[in-house]
Design goal:
single chain, mainly beta, 1 helix, about 5% helix, about 65% strand
Amino acid sequence: MKFQGHESVLFKLQSVHTSSSDFSNPKNTLWSAISYPLSEFQRLIFGGSLQSSELLAGDYSADQALQWVTSNGKSECFDQEFFDFCKTRFDNAELTAGWVYDSRNRFMFADQGMSHRLILNASIPGK
């Protein structure tokens, strides 16, 4: 059995929306996939990912954001001397399987061939 490729990636993303409200969303994702060639143009893909997300909302967050944070995931609130905030954390696992057909002559600016993908994802939410 000869595998065409393997890919593993660890993402760490931090997004803060300070112009509209105080809302933070740090996220860590570990993703891995392998592909098995069927022919020159076709291959099967199998993979999965684990994701851990944390949402933070404070005194200056929108009411809807604060309500969502306190109602979902593993939420907890902290009363600080100058600033109160709540956070929630949730984990997610995703499995991926698919078929790829790619007969393009170049990856970028191809002028011949075609590319088709049929990918199935299943997500398993965690707490």
